[in-house]
Amino acid sequence: MSHLWRRHRHWLAPTLFILPGALLFGVVIILASIETIWVSFFDWDGVGPMQWVGLANYEQLFADPQFYVSLKNNVIWLAMFMLAPPLGLALALLLNQAIAGMKFLKSLFFVPLVLASVTVGVVFTWVYDPTFGLLSLIYGWFGATAPALLSDEHLVSFAVVIAALWPQVAFCLVLFLAGLNNLNEDLIGAGRVDGARGFAMLLHVVLPQLREVSFIALAVTIIGALRSFDMVAVMTSGGPFGSSTVLAYQMYEQSIFSYRFGYGAAIATVLFAVMAVFIAWYLRTLLRPEQETA
Amino acid sequence: MASVEIHNVEKHYGGFHALKDISLTIDEGEFIVMVGPSGCGKSTLLKTIAGLETVTSGRLRIKGRDVTRLEPGDRGIAMVFQSYALYPHMTVEENMGFGLRMAKRPRAEIDTAVARAAQILRLEEQLRKYPKQLSGGQRQRVAIGRAITRSPDVFLFDEPLSNLDAALRTQMRVELSTLHDRLGSTMIYVTHDQVEAMTMASRIVVLNGGRIEQVGAPLELYANPINLFVAGFLGAPRMNFVAGRVTSTNGGSASVTCGGDLKVDFDDLAETPAVGAAVTIGIRPEKLRIGDPDAGTSFPARVRLTEYLGRETIVYADAGDLATSGSDSGTGVFTIQIGDIQPFAPDAPVSVGFDANAAYLFAPDGRTLSAAKPVTQI
């Protein structure tokens, strides 16, 4: 027995360690994804019998004006979320200064990371409230009336994204702070000896060392923008008139509230296809540096 | 004109006193090597000259200009780091031209300077490569090339060869000496390797505990260490130290008795110790001889171990009650270096001898008491 174990240990041990994770990933992610794609070809209310409809769900989806509203909102999310990495970096550079009290200030910036996103959503709903919210208070100082952001179909998506940006910026801030702590001191020294300072130092010596962190921040932000759901659910439920709906929320609404699991699965499949593009880019970039050194 | 002047520099890190009243004047074109044990402050001193560390008090001048408060880039220095510190995202060419680019020099001037440095360091073929595509020795050359292109008044080297293997280290040592001859620039070089110090320096600065112990030409320091620390630090194998007591003095002479009833007479002392003082006798391994009837002083010992290095033989001999202190082996045996190959049976009884005027006498506080020895002329 022990002889057998010793002979096969070099592959048995890693296999045993990976097995639980791989099993979980296989069932929850891979199998579920395949089943979702399968379900998208059926008309199904979630409990009754499944009726094969072929591509009918997709045909209906691409003719649905609500789908294009969701898609447009996802693009708004994606575009505005791109602000998170540069804002996080700017804050990290600011908070990285060795000034007394900076530690306390840093911890204040971490607050949104501790809050559940539902909490952030609720808090921002109050901030935006046109009668008693913080925003109406600020407008009041200037003698103006605050717009009802969450009931304005043109502004509502932007208002929700700004709320979602708060924890996202904090997340990028943490990533960049960690990156700044790992800067190579000798390289900074070499830069100083070479006469680089201020913006030139940042551009030529500091930022290149943060390349990997920036990449992770960017990738996580993109995924975060595409899978946005909770903020929309808490703050607007997709309203008014579905004007703040995103793909993930539309999928949820169609499946759970309208009992159209086949249609919801079709939306999920489209969202999956969009994400797959970014995931492919992520994986390609992640694997490329290893090829370079080889 | 002096190239670098260091006036009463002090450096505190919180409660740690890293540099204690350092003053040193370095002439144009000198190759200064700073040596000392870990934590002696040699790297800190180099970084204060570079401007990477500020001084707590004191002044620094480079070419007569007060640079104490200037940024590193404004001091007219270039530095080669132990880790090379090459910018990983830049090619060799960009790495070497970066300093001039930051100084906003015209493109043509940068290209010329880089090409010249590449030619000096035989890097022409590597210019378009990235640091990670280069070997350790090549990276080191690029780091030196980056320093050369800036045509600095002073080159600073922080243990530049310690990451290289032994063969490459010897080769780079020769290359650096050649480079110094060719450029004629002032160079300040920090190392813990005393072979580098002895072979490259025009003057060696020995540091210990944040203080300068002694400054001088390599052979001068080797022949006439100012105290026990310098005597023990320079020379490999290390000098043999034996504790003794002054039994009698007569003008400039003193008799010292050590364990095992060994008696050594010193003449022409620079300073006469008090009778009864606990002194230390030092004798370099190459000054000890085995079985020489003409040796002025001798004592019996037994061979413990023999190392045959080819052109020389190192013998470790145990003299019983006459034990050495602070030896490399840490066992109290004598280290004897013989210039040829002599076979010794283990445990063989031998007579170890030396001439008293080749020995050193150190006061209880470590100062050298014996007369200055002539430095072998080259």
TrEMBL record, chain A:
GO terms for biological process: transmembrane transport. The chain crosses the membrane at residues 12-34, 75-95, 107-128, 155-178, 199-225, 231-249, 261-283. Keywords: Cell membrane, Membrane, Transmembrane, Transmembrane helix, Transport. Its main location: membrane. It is found in: Cell membrane. The keyword Protease does not apply. The keyword Membrane applies. This is Sugar ABC transporter permease. It comes from Pleomorphomonas carboxyditropha.
TrEMBL record, chain B:
It is found in: Cell inner membrane. Its main location: membrane. The keyword Cell inner membrane applies. Keywords: ATP-binding, Cell inner membrane, Cell membrane, Membrane, Nucleotide-binding, Transport. It is a peripheral membrane protein. InterPro entries: AAA+_ATPase, ABC_transporter-like_ATP-bd, ABC_transporter-like_CS, ABC_transpr_MalK-like, ABC_transpr_MalK/UgpC-like, Mo/tungstate-bd_C_term_dom, NA-bd_OB-fold, OB_MalK-like. SMART domains: AAA (SM00382). GO terms for cellular component: ATP-binding cassette (ABC) transporter complex, substrate-binding subunit-containing; maltose transport complex. The keyword ATP-binding applies. CDD domains: ABC_MalK_N. Residues 4-234 form the ABC transporter domain. One of its GO terms (molecular function) is ABC-type maltose transporter activity. Belongs to the ABC transporter superfamily. This is ABC transporter ATP-binding protein. It comes from Pleomorphomonas carboxyditropha.
